[in-house]
Amino acid sequence: MRTILCTIAVLLSGCRPVEKPSANRFLALGDSYTIGESVESNQRWPVQLAGQLRDKGVDVGAPEIIATTGWTTDELSAGMDATKPAGPYRLVTLLIGVNNQFRGRGIDEFRTQFRALLARAIVLAEGKPWRVIVVSIPNYGVTPFAASSDRPKIAREIDTFNAVCREEAVRAGAAFVDITPGSRKAADDPSLVADDGLHPSGKMYRQWAEQILPVAQKAVSR
Prior knowledge:
Blueprint: H1 2-14, E1 26-30, H2 32-35, H3 45-55, E2 64-67, H4 73-83, E3 91-95, H5 98-102, H6 107-124, E4 132-135, H7 151-172, E5 175-177, H8 180-183, H9 202-221
Parallel strand pairs: 1-2, 1-3, 3-4, 4-5
């Protein structure tokens, strides 16, 4: 009987379809902009980007997202410690910093913590910095939420934080995509803002994904 069972097991195993290789893994790190506060999950820009990559013939899985509304750089780091993402990832994106600016945190502290996050992202991308994309911080100063705020001050500070993001990306050999100019269009187009009056709408997230798409295609092809 044991011999018969073993024979059946061998025959059954031989009839199993050959499994396809797993899709390229995509990790998105960030805060409310990455988790898509106030929009449906399918409208998040990492989800839209993954769909656009698949439309281009890139075999990429659903993005794994480590992001929470309100997170600063140190909180994202703690979130990664808790989640323990395990590479390798074919694509990693990093968009963080707006809450550092909003809370009045120092730029030197931001640089140190951002550099550490970027180094972790590169490790998760098999040590290949070209597979990491740093996405700039949008200018929320143009939204209804900031109507009573010092909008020029917000813009200047966001630009300062983004300069650090760009410098650190270049230093590390990672890609940098500047979505900030496009985010300013929300000043004249309410459809680019979610119902909460602060975060981007799915329409704006689609524009971000379209801008990031060619850089992501290049990243995963190497």
